[in-house]
Amino acid sequence: MIIKTAEFVKSSGKWQECPEPNIPEYAFIGRSNVGKSSLINAMMNHKDLAKTSQTPGKTQLINHFLVNENWYLTDLPGYGYAKVSKVQRKDFEKLITNYILNRRNLVNLFVLVDVRHTPQKIDLEFIQWCGESGIPFSIVFTKADKLKPNAVVKNVEDYKAELHKTWEDLPELYITSAEKKEGGDNILNFIQKTNEFLINNNISFDE
Fold first, then answer.
1. Which end of the chain is more exposed for a tag (fewer CB within 10 A), N or C?
2. Half-sphere exposure of residue 176: CA atoms within 13 angstroms, side-chain side
């Protein structure tokens, strides 16, 4: 997919305030500091489309971007950020879950996982929740440039082994590096093929 245009649309504090759900939408989520904004910017070839920060937990709203004038890229708040109050954390969780469960044009959720770490309980629990909730999703490993290739492979295999304890078939897996702009094209190709499938099968999101 060639990115011709990518523009910020709006930030929403409630899922009901999001843009009209009339075109395909692909959302990105992960633990705070997983490199979500950097990956989005690398994919869109735009250095500051999504705001990056040295402070984890900066994304606290649902941010919508219109790409090529025909699909939404959605930047969701990170989950599991410990340095906010319990009340704030519950508010974030409510915002995230309500969006994911109620947004009718959400075609796929990309769950970002830092490939540098061993399988994290919070990531595994969120992935399990997605599966139990019937949410279509993919797993995106980030920061692959921070490890040697064989270490990346090992950590991905460790994740797959952990997931296979409760999953028979695993979702699509992507290995990415925002720094080296690697892996993002594979995600964009998936989005393009999915959009073409929706068009060819006359699937719309109008109620």
1. C
2. 30
